[in-house]
Amino acid sequence: MKAICLGVPSEADHPLFLRLVAETLPAKGYDTVVLLIRYQYEFRSHPEIATQNPLSPRRAREIANMCRRSGIRFIPKMNLFGHQSGKERGTEDGLLRAYPDFDETPDAASVRYCRSLCPRHPQVSGVVRDLISNILDDTGADAFHAGCDEVFEIGLCPRCRGAGNHRLFAEWITTLHEHIVGRCGVEMLIWSDRLLDGAATGYGEWEASMNGTHQAAGMIPKDIICCDWHYGEREDYPSSFLTCRGFRVVVCPWKDPKATESLLACAARNKSERLLGVLQTSWCNPGNVCRSILGAGEPQDETSRGVAASFETVAQKWP
Question: What is the domain extent for residue 117?
C-alpha cells in the first residue's frame, strides 16, 4: 500500500484533483487515495448534517471512478469519535451541530482540544451507520476509514462515566466494525494512536494514549487496518507491537521529509506481511497540495510544500 490522504477539493480544484489521481499518483507508484470527507457530504439520509460546500454524490463518484480507471484504490474517511469540533462552543462539526445531544461533554463551554461524540447515546450509532452507508453506496468503495484518533473527551457523560475508557473505546470500534465489515462487507481502517500506550512507548498523549484507551487493543477485531501516524524525526518508532498483536499496519508521515525518511527506514527494518505500507497525510487545503505536488501555479503554503516533499520522499524511498 502506497497511499495519500487528501481532503475534499473545492469545485474549482476538482479537475486538478482528478489530474493528480490520473497522472501523478500512478507515475509515482501510489496505489490508494484516502478521501477525508468528514461531514462535507450531501448525505441523503441526514442532509442536516452536511457542512459547508458539501461534496455531491456525483463528484464523489467521479473521484472514485477516476481512481479505479487509474488503478488507484479509493477509500472514504470520516472522523467518527473525536474531532467533532474545535475547542470552543460554536465550532461543532456537522454531527454535533445537527444533534447536540450526541456530545460527550454537552455542558462544557470549551474543551481541551476537540469534542467527541458519545458512543453510548442510544441514537448515535444508527445515524452514523446511515452516513457510512450513504458514502459507500454512492462510491462503491471496498474500504472505509473511520478515524477515531486523538480522543481526549471520553468517559465523562452520565452514560459513559465509570465504564472504563478502554471498554468504551472497544465497544465503539466494535460497533463500527459490525456495520462497516459485517454489514457493508468492506475493510475498515482507523488511526492507531488510541491503541498505543503513551507511557510505555514514550510517545505521550498525542501520538498515543494516556487515558487508558490503549487497553482496547486486545478487545477489538484484528482485521482492522491500523494507520500509525508519527510526524517527528526519531531513531525508532516503538509501535510495531501492533503487528505482533495481529493487526495490519500502515505507517503515516506528514510534512517533514527527514522525519518521513526515518519512519520509512524503521518500517523497512520491521517489515512483515502485516506491515502493508505507507499512508502519506496532508491536513491542509487539498488544492494547494495538488498544486505543490504537480508544480502548478504559484508557490503554495509551507505545509503543502512540506507535504509535497514528503510525498516525493515516499515515492523514492518506499518500493
Answer: 2-317
